[in-house]
Automatic annotation (TrEMBL):
GO cellular component terms, semicolon-separated: cytoplasm
Domain of life: Eukaryota
Coiled-coil ranges (or none): none
UniProt cross-references to Pfam families, sorted A to Z: DAO (PF01266)
Chain positions covered by the region annotation Disordered: 1-31
Name of this chain's protein: FAD dependent oxidoreductase domain-containing protein
Gene3D superfamilies to which the protein is assigned, alphabetical: D-Amino Acid Oxidase, subunit A, domain 2 (3.30.9.10), FAD/NAD(P)-binding domain (3.50.50.60)
């Protein structure tokens, strides 16, 4: 599944509230959504999204977001935290909440860490049996439920149940509720929109104009031809 699932390193923090910040964590959560941006000056990439929850008892604020250098975000190494992410998360709360911090004041950061999220080119999880053409191994007993694009909490439980049902031979029952677009089919695996190039276009928020679409098509055709040639040579 290499290229069909790729790592994105996210950053999360726990920050102390001020006495004037309302304690509303038991009733709501918050998020901000803006345009995906890339700054060529410092090489930083941002999804434009911050997600926030609050401990209903202590008032501590949990805030995370993905802004860091492009080469730092596309990694499976979560042993460190990007300096850009650290600086951004340390200052973002006063820009989101109207009350809680005075102008120029920064929250106290109690903890900061990174973690790896599994993303897919078409922004949908892979669920089901993995074809031999992908594994390159004998047998047909490899299954997958992965690539939740940062939405594992609402998706992974149902997807795991779907794979379990398929393993038990209950594909018909599973397909009554599992979106067909989630399934790990040969057609989807070979689709133009499941290529690494398509994943980068989606990640960077690039509009699919004629030039970009042409590049995707050329790259996709090249992969198809390469796969066909390899299969022909391998069969001799």
């Amino acid at each position: 599944m290499r290229g069909k699932i790729y790592p994105i390193r996210g950053t999360m923090s726990v920050q102390s509230p001020t006495p004037s910040l309302p304690r509303e964590g038991g009733e709501k959560s918050w998020s901000t959504i803006d345009k995906t941006t890339y700054d060529p000056k410092d090489g930083s990439f941002s999804y434009g999204m911050y997600y926030i929850t609050q401990n209903a008892h202590t008032g501590d604020v949990f805030v995370g977001g993905e802004k860091q250098a492009l080469e730092e975000i596309l990694t499976a190494d979560d042993s460190g935290v990007s300096k850009i992410s650290k600086s951004t998360l340390e200052s973002v709360l006063p820009s989101i909440f109207a009350t809680g911090w005075k102008e120029g004041e920064r929250p106290e950061v109690k903890s900061l860490w990174s973690g790896i999220l599994a993303f897919t080119p078409d922004q949908l999880p892979w669920v089901g049996k993995v074809p031999k053409s992908v594994t390159g191994r004998g047998g047909d007993g490899e299954w997958v439920a992965a690539g939740f694009n940062g939405y594992g909490m609402p998706l992974c439980w149902g997807c795991g149940e779907a794979v379990a049902g398929m393993l038990l031979g209950k594909e018909r029952e599973v397909r009554e509720w599992l979106p067909r677009s989630f399934e790990t089919t040969g057609r989807r695996l070979g689709s133009l929109f499941s290529t690494p190039e398509a994943g980068m276009v989606g990640m960077l928020g690039v509009e699919l104009g004629w030039v970009m679409m042409g590049r995707l098509v050329v790259g996709w055709i090249g992969r198809v031809v390469k796969g066909w040639v390899s299969s022909r040579l391998g069969g001799k």
